[in-house]
């Protein structure tokens, strides 16, 4: 599926069959009166882990929002290879602590896209919820309130919600931020397993260790793409100090 945005129409991408899950060209997006992404062109390889790296405010969340379809691009072209709609796990801070939801209800929300808000979950929906919770090791937390959980537990519940969507494209915004080392390693190992099981994973991260273990990396600076490729080629000391240089 290709989505065209106006303003800067660009030539259609090559018709060559893609090993890419998503490709975008000259993508621009932002907020009212605040352009953020500036003519970004890159691709997200299928069945691999892509790390989105860059300083605060460089546009990582905005790019994830565009890829997830929650922020509309203002220009450029976005092409998704065949597959299911993406599942998006926003930053932890974006999910209200005060929501009166249990862990299980939170994961069940992952079925709303297909089921609709008011329809009862089917047996298959419940099975998908059960298996996502088992997979994330949070089945035992089913009846606990989301706001009572530790950061690592909450993050697992939110990832289980995205798995319940049964997507093959998982977009995560800083899934390990604020977690202790054990929880960080646990989430990173889980994401690696998901890739091995056939999911394409994109994560925005400030965790350079996680970024270095990704298959590929997009380095953003001030809304522009300043590097893409294998982490060892992109995350060089020179590139990092250039990108994080104070303005
Ligand atoms: N809802 C919003 N309304 C207006 N401006 C916003 C909004 N969200 C983000 N911005 C601005 O857009 C720019 C890019 O923000 P974005 O959150 O995409 O960056 P980021 O790389 O994810 O940052 P961080 O690492 O701090 O999460 C920043 O200047 C930010 O202030």
Walk me through the structure.
There is one protein chain. With 247 residues, the chain is α/β, with parallel strands linked by helices. The chain has nine helices and ten strands. It is globular, with a radius of gyration of 18 Å. The site of adenosine-5'-triphosphate (ATP) has 12 residues, from strand 3 and helix 1.
Quick tags:
247 residues, alpha/beta, six-stranded mixed beta sheet, four-stranded antiparallel beta sheet, 9 helices, 10 strands, globular, binds adenosine-5'-triphosphate
What is this entry, summarized?
The chain has 247 residues and is an alpha/beta fold. 32% of the residues lie in helices and 26% in strands.
Major β-sheet annotation: 6 strands, mixed
- By helix and strand content, what is the structural category? alpha/beta
- Reading the helices and strands in chain order gives EEEEHEEHHHHEHEHEEHH
Helix content: 25-40%
Overall pLDDT metric: 87
In one word, what is the shape? globular
Low-confidence stretches: 6-14
Percent of residues in beta strands = 25-35%
Radius of gyration: 18 Å
Termini separation (Å)? 39 Å
Please count the helical segments: 9
Strands, total number? 10
- Report strand order across the widest sheet: 6-7-8-4-9-10
Small molecules in complex: adenosine-5'-triphosphate
């Amino acid at each position: 599926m290709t989505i065209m945005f106006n303003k800067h129409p660009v030539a259609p991408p090559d018709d060559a069959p893609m090993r890419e899950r998503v490709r975008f060209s000259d993508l621009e997006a932002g907020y009212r009166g605040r352009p953020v992404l500036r003519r970004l062109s890159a691709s997200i390889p299928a069945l691999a882990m892509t790390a989105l790296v860059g300083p605060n405010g460089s546009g990582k969340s905005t790019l994830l929002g565009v890829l997830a379809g929650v922020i509309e691009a203002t220009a450029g072209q976005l092409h998704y290879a065949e597959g299911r709609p993406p599942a998006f796990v926003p930053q932890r801070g974006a999910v209200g602590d005060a929501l009166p939801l249990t862990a299980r209800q939170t994961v069940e929300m992952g079925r709303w896209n297909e089921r609709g808000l008011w329809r009862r979950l089917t047996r298959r929906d419940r099975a998908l919820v059960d298996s996502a919770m088992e997979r994330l090791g949070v089945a035992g937390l089913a009846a606990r309130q989301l706001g009572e959980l530790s950061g690592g537990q909450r993050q697992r519940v939110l990832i289980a919600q995205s798995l319940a969507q049964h997507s093959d494209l998982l977009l995560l915004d800083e899934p390990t931020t604020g977690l202790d080392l054990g929880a960080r390693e646990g989430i990173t190992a889980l994401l690696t397993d998901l890739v091995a099981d056939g999911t394409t994973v994109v994560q925005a991260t400030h965790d350079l260790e996680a970024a270095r273990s990704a298959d590929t990396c997009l380095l953003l600076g001030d809304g522009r793409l300043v590097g893409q490729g294998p982490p060892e080629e992109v995350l060089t000391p020179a590139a990092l100090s250039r990108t994080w240089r104070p303005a």
